[in-house]
């Protein structure tokens, strides 16, 4: 609950800042599916949810095509279910830095954009249960033998979207390349890597 309150106040601050910012600030929401890829196959998908902000910083401007850096910061809820009935839920502070090719006027008109680039997720909390009848237990993050997951997840983003005046909407695929198993718990060939497929909408704050 404290993290929800903190996110709320951060968004209020962003809205106030947007009134005076020289660059656009968009309030963003994410909804999609979350899963993992492991050495034993895929888990079962669960819902992914996110809320945050993004902006577009022009790198190269043309008449009909623009190249922009698209930093975005979100509070992202992820999870998956393994074949034994256990469930894992992890909340991340997620930073993405894709570069987007924008086809159209990079202002408030209609246009398409496509992007790719890196992301980093920092775990803020998590819980797991081993079966459908077990109570959830708090996850420990680190690289030791007693930890459940690494605290840092990283990989790359593929995204596409449509801008209609002050709104952006589209699809984003976050492909984790980090092995989330703590270093001291890795056995030969074992790995867990994140997969998150998101539908997002963002709306311009301020003018």
Topology:
Layout: H1 2-18, E1 25-38, E2 41-42, E3 44-54, E4 57-61, E5 65-69, E6 72-81, E7 87-96, E8 99-103, E9 111-129, E10 137-138, E11 152-164, E12 167-176, E13 192-205
Antiparallel strand pairs: 1-2, 1-3, 1-13, 3-6, 4-5, 5-8, 6-7, 7-9, 8-9, 9-10, 9-11, 11-12, 12-13
Tally of alpha and pi helices: 1
Q: Enter the CATH topology name.
A: Porin
Measured on Cα atoms, how large is the radius of gyration? 18 Å
**Beta-strand percentage?**
over 45%
The protein's oligomeric status is single chain
Distance between the termini: 31 Å
The share of residues in helices is under 10%
Task: Describe the protein's architecture and organization.
- It is a single chain.
- This protein starts with a helix and ends with a strand.
- It is elongated.
- Helices cover about 10% and strands about 60% of the residues.
- It has one helix at about 1-20; strands at about 25-40, 40, 45-55, 55-60, 65-70, 70-80, 85-95, 100-105, 110-130, 135-140, 150-165, 165-175, 190-205.
- A hairpin with a 2-residue loop joins strand 11 and strand 12 (about 165-175).
- Strands 1-3-6-7-9-11-12-13 form an 8-stranded antiparallel barrel.
- Mean pLDDT is about 85; it is low at about 1-10 and about 15-20.
- It is mostly beta strands and about 210 residues long.
- The chain has a single domain, classed as Beta Barrel (Porin), CATH 2.40.160.
């Amino acid at each position: 609950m404290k993290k929800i309150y903190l996110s709320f106040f951060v968004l209020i601050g962003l809205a106030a800042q947007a009134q005076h910012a020289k660059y656009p600030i968009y309030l963003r929401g994410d909804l999609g599916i979350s899963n993992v890829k492991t050495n034993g196959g895929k888990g079962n998908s669960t819902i992914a949810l996110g809320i945050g902000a993004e902006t577009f910083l022009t790198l190269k401007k043309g008449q009909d095509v623009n190249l922009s850096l698209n930093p975005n910061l979100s509070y992202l809820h992820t999870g998956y279910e393994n074949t034994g009935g256990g469930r894992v839920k992890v909340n991340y502070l997620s930073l993405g830095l894709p570069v987007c090719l924008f086809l159209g006027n990079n202002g408030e008109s209609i246009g398409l954009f496509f992007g790719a680039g890196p992301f980093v997720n920092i775990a803020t909390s998590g819980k797991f249960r081993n079966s459908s009848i077990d109570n959830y237990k708090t996850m420990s993050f680190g690289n030791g033998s007693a930890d459940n997951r690494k605290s840092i997840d990283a990989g790359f983003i593929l995204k596409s979207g449509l801008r209609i005046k002050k709104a952006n909407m589209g699809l984003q695929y976050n492909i984790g390349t980090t092995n989330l198993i703590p270093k001291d718990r890795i056995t030969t060939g074992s790995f867990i890597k994140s997969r998150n497929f998101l539908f997002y909408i963002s709306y311009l704050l301020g003018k």
